[in-house]
Design brief:
This protein is of the alpha+beta class and 630 residues long. Helix content is 51%, strand content 16%.
Length: 630
């Protein structure tokens, strides 16, 4: 028996090492870390770069953003990816994926975050193998013709054609934005307010084509094709049709990464449904996970990928266990309980990831999911019908009005739920270690529920103990923080004096900017700030620890008061004689924040260099952080 156990352990270890080897090899082989031969620099003669558009990113108010593959730089063949940004003027660029463009501009490195705990867009792009960016004005390129067929181009053209057809119908801007997101995977037409409402209501997943949408379509098509089971090979014919229809929808949705992943996952599920076994479905999910990670291991770090698989695994594994808690006899109650348990299982499975990335918990998620998800299948089905008819200009007015009313009603429900501020818990600190330990707690709990055993109970209690210990350790570490921060903010000055979990904020932001400031919110979450006092003026002198901060603004008026070796902060481009100031107080450091002109900063930096005095520029170096315990 001991020999058999030893062989089993050895087999498990070797299997694990084998998959680790596959992962390492796949990363090495697939990850396109191709170095660009050289960077183009600003000069009188810019080097032409040939690029191919491969992915459309979210459009901002200033630019349309794409991921592009570099094919050629000048006369040299090149490989790599870049962030291609087109400045938006009065007209948005009409570019199609797989377009080849000759562009003239500077290849620049993507800048990292300039403030503590700010979203790291550079790291996000690096996971897409993107290390440089290029910004051009709208129309400042030469299109290179290509006769080669591209399924990506065809999918993008089809989606644009559908969008054009839908815009001709009498939908409001919010209704069109929802239809565009639900059926075409594009959230560019959604207002910020509507997106925020869906987030607060715990229903933002509805607006991103994912496993939920593909899964609902699979159930709809599966029900539609049930009569095929009466034929001898009906099960196989049905499966083939299901997979084809799912991929047809993926084409309409533009073949984005999230859509491809979800469709691949449910294609495996459709095949597993032939065997009518929960175990087969679970194995199919694991198989699809393996195939997708083999194709691109970096999917593992994609938030959408993590949320999608966590939710589906939660529904497949956790939902049956939760459903057993209560078995209502009335059909209506049974169906309502089934839907509730699906929502609870999915939310439990994604909760740690949601807290880690988004730091908020919508307590009314069950209400929004109970009211919206049951209708989502009907909304998707009617939406596909509207799309099909719109391509032939044959959508009846009553159908447009009815569908618009359904979408407007859904938006109204979401807006009402989102308005219940007391039920939206925001700014929840949640670190990566807490994420891992919380999943250990969750998995241990459901393993114990499935088959209660003493060893499983011990594992669960240990996981909970680890979670509590880690939580209190992080809380204690935050309470020990003592620091002063000069943030980087264009045209503004923002300072924070932090003592433990309390902070004093000095700023010149308007009330709206202060309320919606993402970098300040990220800082509060990351540092576990529980109490913040905001002062909407910048004093000329601030004391912290054993240091003095002399602040010189645009008036250029300051009082020395016997100061020695202070830190000097220059803001709003003051017209001062910096040399005289340096000789007067002998500062230990000069800081220039984002409220200054670039020309002024460059002049000050030269003066400090002549005096061999440290100079700190937040525009290039990011926020200045002074730790009081050092």
């Amino acid at each position: 028996m001991f020999h058999r156990i030893r062989k089993k352990i050895l087999f498990t270890i070797l299997t694990g090492l084998f998959f680790v080897f596959i992962g390492v090899f796949s990363v090495h082989f697939q990850k396109a870390r191709h170095q660009i031969p050289f960077e183009t620099k600003s000069s009188e003669q810019l080097t032409p770069v040939l690029i191919k558009l491969v992915k459309r990113l979210k459009t901002t108010s200033n630019s349309a953003n794409y991921i592009a593959e570099i094919k050629q730089i000048g006369l040299s063949t090149a490989k790599g990816k870049l962030l291609f940004q087109v400045q938006i003027d009065t007209v948005k660029p009409t570019l199609i994926l797989s377009d080849f463009l000759w562009v003239y501009g500077d290849l620049e490195k993507v800048q990292g975050p300039l403030n503590p705990h700010q979203f790291d867009y550079k790291a996000y792009l690096e996971k897409l193998d993107v290390y440089q960016r290029m910004t051009v004005k709208n129309g400042h390129w030469v299109m290179q013709e290509s006769n080669a067929f591209s399924i990506l181009r065809w999918a993008d053209q089809t989606r644009l054609q559908i969008q054009t057809a839908l815009k001709k119908l009498d939908f409001t801007s919010d209704e069109f934005g929802i239809i565009n997101a639900l059926l075409l995977g594009q959230r560019t037409e959604l207002s910020e307010e509507l997106q925020e409402d869906y987030t607060k209501a715990g229903a933002i997943h509805i607006l991103a084509i994912s496993g939920l949408h593909i899964g609902i379509l699979l159930l709809l098509f599966n029900t539609l094709f049930k009569p095929l089971l009466f034929f001898k090979q009906g099960a196989y014919i049905k499966t083939i049709l299901l997979v084809l229809l799912l991929w047809a929808f993926a084409l309409i949705a533009g073949l984005s990464s999230s859509v491809i992943r979800a469709t691949t996952m449910f294609s495996f599920v459709a095949i597993a449904m032939i065997f009518k076994s929960q175990t087969a479905v679970l194995h199919s999910l694991i198989s699809s996970l393996f195939v997708l990670l083999l194709y691109n291991p970096l999917f593992l770090f994609d938030v959408g990928f993590q949320l999608s698989y966590a939710a589906v695994f939660g529904i497949v594994w956790m939902q049956p266990l939760i459903y057993k808690i209560w078995k209502p006899k009335v059909w209506l109650f049974r169906k309502a309980w089934q839907l509730t348990t699906v929502s609870i299982a999915a939310q439990l499975a994604v909760l740690p990831i949601s807290l880690y990335y988004f730091h908020q918990f919508p307590a009314l998620f069950i209400v929004s999911n109970l009211l919206i998800v049951p209708c989502l299948g009907f909304i998707l089905f009617v939406g596909l019908l509207v799309i099909a008819l719109s391509l032939f200009n044959a959508v009846p007015i009553f159908l447009v009005d009815a569908y618009g009313f359904i979408i407007a009603t859904m938006n109204a429900i979401i807006q009402w739920i989102a308005s219940q501020d007391a039920f939206v818990i925001e700014e929840i600190p949640f670190s990566a270690p807490l994420l891992l330990v919380s999943y250990a707690c969750l998995i241990s709990a459901f393993l114990y529920i499935s088959k209660p055993k003493f060893i499983k109970l011990v594992s669960l209690l240990l996981a909970i103990l680890c979670f509590q210990s880690l939580y209190f350790l992080e809380k204690w570490q935050s309470s020990q923080q003592r620091k002063f921060v000069v943030f980087h903010q264009t045209a503004q000055t923002v300072l924070i004096h932090q003592q433990g979990t309390t902070a004093t904020l000095f700023h010149n932001l308007d009330s709206l900017s202060l309320k919606h400031s993402s970098f300040l919110k990220s800082y509060r979450i990351g540092e576990r700030i529980t109490r913040q006092t905001a002062i909407d003026s910048i004093p000329s002198l601030i004391s912290f620890a054993n240091k003095k901060l002399l602040i010189v603004d645009s008036l250029g008026v300051y009082q020395l008061n016997g100061l020695e070796y202070p830190i000097v902060l220059l803001r709003q481009s003051p017209k001062i004689n910096l040399e005289r100031l340096i000789l007067s107080v002998t500062p230990s450091l000069v800081i220039a924040d984002g409220s200054n002109y670039t020309s002024s900063i460059e002049a000050w930096e030269k003066i400090c260099k002549n005096f061999k005095l440290p100079f700190y520029n937040t525009r290039t170096q990011g926020a200045f952080v002074f730790y009081e315990d050092k």
